[in-house]
alcohol dehydrogenase (Brassica oleracea var. oleracea), 399 residues
Amino acid sequence: MAETQGKVITCRAAVAWGPKEPLVIQEICVDPPQEMEVRVKILYTSICHTDLGTWTGVNEAERAFPRILGHEAVGVVESVGEGVKDVKEGDYVIPTFNGECGECRVCKKEVSNLCERYKVDPMKRLMVNDGGTRFSTTTNKDGGSSQSQRIYHFLNTSTFTEYTVLDSACVVKIDPNAPLKQMSLLSCGVSTGVGAAWNTAKVKEGTTTAVFGLGSVGLAVAEGARARGASRIIGVDANASKFEKGKVMGVTDFINPKDLTKPVHERIRELTRGGVDYSFECTGNVDVLREAFLSTHAGWGSTVLVGIYATPRTLPLHPMELFDGRKITGSVFGGFKPKSQLPSFAQQCMKGVVKLEPFITNELPFEKINDAFQLLRDGKSLRCLLQIAKHTTRKQQGY
Ligand code: NAD
Ligand code: ZN
Ligand code: ZN
């Protein structure tokens, strides 16, 4: 049994105190897990565009500070609360922002991964059990001491910390022999992208695909489409430096909208005799979504929305445009049910069906988290991996 079980743990976390303010690495207190909760020691975490979006505070309704952001990670269970049966101390786990209770009506159906109790909720900042937080601090953002104040949770996960507490529905056990650094990617970006291609669009062999936005999520869509045998994968990005990586992920054609004098969808229709079979919007830009929609073939084309849209604008389509027979749908966490489906997805990744290694473009120590944010903002990284805790149990594997 861990010495710390049942006790408050004092550790370091990167706390977001306000929109666009640099994160502050400081001491926090992490309470023990309550019923059906799990306390996890985070080993590695990476940064997704959704962390960036929340930190910049574009969507006012989602603002809640001080807060611990972060939702892509891998860690070890430190202790579990009453009633937790499927993970135990010492298990390697990945947190998932979209949970699976296994008992609600949605969890019992195959068609959706949006668990009634633990589906992703950007407004959620408190734990379900008691409406409280498991994080607190007596240190101000400037390092001075203060009365104990609570720190909000984020996206069911909060991984920019040495220890976090999650609902057990949002913790997935992984093979202890899995390459841990790469498993962090399955917490969000890679599962989201590959799943959008496999589970939502159900990309078939020999089909054509267009991916808008070649960050980790878009490139994971491309990698997923490649693995399913798509014959042509057109990558669209306004940052041409993403094209080099795209080639590794099976992107066959590249379009930089800045180089065109016509709308992107017209170029894609020219290249594909009327449009692609599937398109994926992975930028979070509503105007790009319209281009993605119009770039599919009339009659059967299918567009999958993956980006997160902070704008209050609604769908950029006239209802009559749907009579052309193009379909449009959204995908959360790639349609994966985390507890039931991620372990086998992780196995497939370990067999090389999906390449994970190219997604980690940078590695930095935890203290450099603000530099890692900057790399993503500048479009200079796919995933920057931050090492939070040193661990020795799997030394032989070099992690
Ligand atoms: P990223 O910042 O790494 O990549 C975004 C890419 O889009 C960049 O390469 C950028 O150059 C490109 N881009 C931006 N605006 C563009 C434009 N107007 N035209 C062409 N290209 C443009 O982000 P990411 O981590 O890959 O995430 C992508 C999106 O997916 C974000 O909106 C993120 O919030 C969202 N997301 C959704 C889910 C989900 O479950 N649906 C999960 C994770 C992330
Ligand atoms: Zn994410
Ligand atoms: Zn459920």
User: Anything to note?
Assistant: The longest helix spans residues 338-350.
